[in-house]
Amino acid sequence: MTIKTAVLNGVYTIEIARPEKKNALTAEMYGQMAEGLIAAKADGAVRSVLITGQPGIFTSGNDLEDFMKRTGTVAESPAFKFMQALTGCDKPVVAAVTGAAIGIGTTMLLHCDLVYVSDEARLAMPFVSLGLVPEFASSLLVPQLMGPRKAAEKILLGDPFTGQDAVDCGIANAVLPAAEVANHARRIAERFNALPPSAVRQTKTLLRRANADSVMAAIAAENEVFAARLGSPEAKEAFSAFFQKRKPDFSQFS
Fold first, then answer.
1. β-sheet bridge partners, residue 116
2. DSSP class of 62
């Protein structure tokens, strides 16, 4: 199984488990993660959710080979259903990140409540370099967290950044040695077992209330442009270059 789920001591764990492909996400995996989040929300015994990858790799983002085979609209895609499930989860979501967190590997963290990263973590949002645009409301949330100048570095230029950078800009709560991240994140997730569950859920809703409509509007706007960009000549050149293991040539475009 490429997505493993388990409930232990009140924590619903969603583990991305495809290390041989650097935890690259397929449509099926997005669907399984969405189902896990929906199940966690509905289960009265679950007090929190923990999202984690494998040692040394959170996720390298979309599996581009699988991505190119997907059909239907963006709004019908399993990736969008995952976005809906994560933004709609009223229970605390904790993320444990080691190694690479690329693309949606970074943008999903914007929708987790508590994020713990390793000192060797590398985050990146290389959407533009693929001829695409940002997703998961990152065009809204990243400038809010970092300010417009740093956001331009991370989104327009796609500059990678460290776990410490993620803490400094507010994406993550703390940076820890890689060997300690998973256990620390689980201990944090288990702390919700001692707190009144309704108060926790209602407080999470209130914390996100001011931005809720803006986030959904941003996701919708991004999805519309993203879908159009998928068929663009620039995106075709970027994807062709990726599969041919060469540097893309955008000099022909204006």
1. 96, 174
2. B
Residue 103 per-residue DSSP state = T
- Are the C-beta atoms of residues 35 and 1 closer than 8 Å to each other? no
Alpha-carbon gap, residue 164 to 55, rounded angstroms: 18
CA–CA separation, 76 vs 78, rounded Å?
7
For residues 88 and 67, what is the distance between their CA atoms, to the nearest angstrom? 24
Contact 193, 47 (CB under 8 A): yes
Torsion of CA 156, 158, 164, 168, to 10 degrees: 10
- Ranges of H-type helices in the chain: 27-42, 64-69, 78-87, 104-107, 138-146, 148-151, 163-169, 178-190, 197-230, 233-243
Comparing CA positions, the residue from 36, 46, 38, 41 lying closest to residue 16 is 36
Distance from C-alpha of 104 to C-alpha of 102, rounded to nearest angstrom: 6
pLDDT digits (tens, 9 = 90+) for 68-111: 887 777 778 999 999 999 999 999 999 999 999 999 999 999 99
Q: DSSP class of residue 232?
A: S
Quote the pTM value: 0.97
For the chain, how big is the Rg over CA atoms in Å?
18
Type of residue found at 205: T
Beta bridge partners of 174: 116
